[in-house]
């Protein structure tokens, strides 16, 4: 009995061991299959492809040229001559004769205020002047009479002095009344606001019926001849500029370029940005408005770069290639990175070719055929 039990235990252990061994074998075979042990291997190394050869296609040479380099300074158009129109009186607005965008001339009426109160004050001042004038005339007549009586020893010295004093007092009162009339006339003139200079209305801050307060803006105008681009310019460029230099300004909204003259360079650098504020005046134009975006184009010297014929560039999606002719007349396709367009028919190249290398020129059909051949070579390899 005991012998049978021992044999059973030994068989169970042997079966478990067999299961483990089989499982390990299956795992090892699976790993080997996943790692590609049962597939043909490609020996490491590089095989030279026969490739394409130059067979009469048109070619061109990569040239090295010098080009003026321009840096941009971003700025905003602002007016150097800007006027805030406000009232000197506390009064209601009767009429505003202009709206935003209107061109005004010097002396043109802009705003009319309610002037009834100031007309009344002027009338009172004039009546007071008439009374003062009458008092002076009466005092002068009285002085003349007293003076004649004194010559006849019929008036005392005290009467003469009193008459003389009355003349002086009435003359002073008349002068004060005249000044009050002038003051009332000036206050009345403030009820009509005229343009102090020619310019363009850019903002209207009040409407008829509003109460105007002294110093509160009613209109804003600027001189269209005083527009200039204000732009922060990096230190290494700003130190090379001086007042009177002529630069170009490009206005993106108009897609136009304007000639500008450096008008002012603020003699203090901005520490965080390491830049100077440069102000360049622009010519008068009906298309330019304050607040527009502009770019100040600053020449920063000459630089050398490579360029090639645009017909040599083959574009596949967003990638750019050229076919370079090697010394053994085989054609090698290279990926390049192009820059900006230069003169018509020429393209700046930033990387991928060297000066003096020969590249194949493509027409539309040749480019399509070359692309297919290149794709086929890639598949064959």
From TrEMBL:
Question: What are the transmembrane regions?
Answer: 14-34
Single GO MF descriptor: efflux transmembrane transporter activity
Taking the record's annotation, the residue ranges forming a coiled coil are: 115-166
Q: Residue ranges of the CusB-like beta-barrel domain?
A: 229-296
> Pfam families, per this entry?
Beta-barrel_RND_2
Q: Which UniProt keywords apply?
A: Coiled coil, Membrane, Transmembrane, Transmembrane helix
Q: ATP-binding among the record's keywords?
A: no
Which family is this protein grouped under? Answer: Belongs to the membrane fusion protein (MFP) (TC 8.A.1) family.
Protein name as catalogued: Macrolide export protein MacA
Q: Which gene encodes it?
A: macA_5
